[in-house]
Amino acid sequence: MSNKLKDRMENYLNRSNYSLLSKLPIIIVINGRGFSKSTQLLTKPFDSAFDQCMTSTMLQLCLQVEGATFAYHINDEIILMARNDQTNDTACWYNGHIQKIASITSSIATLHFNECVSKLQLNMTGDCLFTSQVFEVPNIAEGINAFIYKQQQNAYLSIQSACLYSLLTKHNKDTIKEMLAGLTNDEKIDLLWQECQINFNDYPLAFKRGSAAYKVPKLIDGAMKNKWHLNDELPIFTKSQSFLQNIFRMGSDIFGQEDIE
Predict the structure, then answer these.
(1) Distances in whole angstroms, Cα of residue 113 to Cα of each of 109, 208, 232
(2) Which of 19, 136, 198, 242 to pair with 66, CA 20 to 30 A apart?
(3) What is the pTM of this model?
């Protein structure tokens, strides 16, 4: 193989191998591909076994992504933040190569989720695959805002989903869309009660607010160690911003430690 050919091929590769800037918070968004079809046989709008598979996948990503600080799960989506600014010598995972980070995180999610599906005998249809997107935010404040946005998005989608699947027992999809058009979240919740006698507040908190994984200090063999903790009773982020600020800035939730132990 000639050196010229080798150099030319590597040049093509390097030109497409985009890298992240160092010392900035990294956001990784992992999504189930085509899960609206894959989950069509599951209980709607919320399936506890599916949620268990997703939260387990979220925890697995936290364990394997270098610098992982906080992860948030809603529906078929996992959003994870990783940091690489703890010291001057802290390096970005895979040197910040976006293609590598995206490919390995989607692979981790796909492999672990399918293992959970098999273990729980979840009735999924078709292949269970995940996609991954990677980007940076300029500071911790914007990292917090990324998760606030996702929780707000989930609040809308969970209400919309609850109304859609419950109202299908009485109306067709076109009629339901007309009924929901222009309504506020509170008005949709009232409609759900009036039409189906379903109290939206009775749904699990994880369905309404999402769930998260982050580290908390725990005493193990006489030493304090940070261990990953799953929280499916999250506060509303906009009403408790110190919750995210403490975790993002300190790497663990030291203030919530007593509540967890």
Answers:
(1) 6, 22, 18
(2) 242
(3) 0.89
